Queue: 3 jobs
Job 1
Amino acid sequence: MINRTLCITLTLSLFLPIVSFAQQISDDMFRSISKLSGMEKQVGELTGVIWAGFMQGAQQHPPMSPTVQTKYKKAVDIAFNSSEMLKIVKTHVQNQVTENEANELIIWYKSKAGMEMAKAEEDASTPEAIQQMFKEARVIFADQKLVKIAIRIDSLIKGTEMTLAL
């Protein structure tokens, strides 16, 4: 599951205008943004979060043999390789965010609001928080009015399409 910070960062990088002749941001600048925003930590934990969710779902089915479990674990590790995911995000950000915009992001993430936002996003992406979200999902999905609003917002901003395109 991709958390909100990663989606927001990716969304911002896709919507920011491409400036011709703008200097590409450095690897160090990208690393600063990814660390300050919490994205690096969250992406690094993604494989574990996905595996924990998979194992939780697997408990509702007949037990898996250790051999099958090892094969699934390898598949998850390959499919959700955090280093590869960060390389993809880095390429998008470096191609679409100017050095000026990157500096503004760094300044914002160093602000009190930016630090609080990054911390909240990191806290929301822990395996425990995600399990809590799944527990609450039943209640949320039962409220059809909220579901319709969420679907409408998603269709307006094309959030699902953008995420799938990545």
Job 2
Amino acid sequence: MGYNTIFELVVSDDIDKQELANKLFNILNTDDNGLPDDNERYVELAREQANSLVYDGEYYGRWYSYMNDMKKLSALYPSRWWLLTGTGDDSGSTWKAYFLNGKGHKYTDDEFVDWLVDKLHSTKNKLRDAYVRSNLT
């Protein structure tokens, strides 16, 4: 089972929304074998999801294949950055996933803060060492 998520989609540049909605629909409406789904209910859900994400900027529901789907979408627009944010309605947990040129990475806010603290600590040590070396007589 699972819980619903509020998905918010942002793209780095202006893009033709109708073209984007159609491409996203084609991705969402494809089964595991790469064939278009012909189940009327799923076709309608895929169209609604694509339109909600593109025209409204968000979609409320379940989207288990979002990482693979967004990688496929970003590969179609290789020069654009994509940000997909998810907020779970049960737990309130939030994550972000960035996509560029068919690749993606997902992280929570806590993971990002941990990464940033590590980078800042490493940079501080490097700067301190450079300062000490430059002031040696």
Job 3
Amino acid sequence: MKVRHLRPGEDWPDTIFMGFEGPNLDREWTWVVEEDSVVQGGLLACPMHGVIFLMRLATVVGAPRLAIRSLLDAALQDSKAKGMVGYTTMIDPTTIEGRKLNKLIKRTGGLQWPRPVVLAFGALAGLERI
């Protein structure tokens, strides 16, 4: 398995839905994992005040089991090298994948916010004032 950043001019693979595809992807904070030159998964992240925010992690159906771990390892190691001191992410505990990721985070010393929260978002286009 090979993990790399998206190349300049390379589009996000159609096989992996992220919900954040488009021309504004910051390739420095975007990783894909390949096996035999075929993209198997991707991770979108961004820096926030010394912490990397892991926004979205997804793989294709049937991706090798190591795909997610490879993406996380590469992103976290790259982030440490860039001076990041921690990470944060969102987990959907109602899914098998979310529960597995939560176990991995806890096993490696990560913590969970003690209260449920709701993710809120909106577009800036057309927004005048709040």
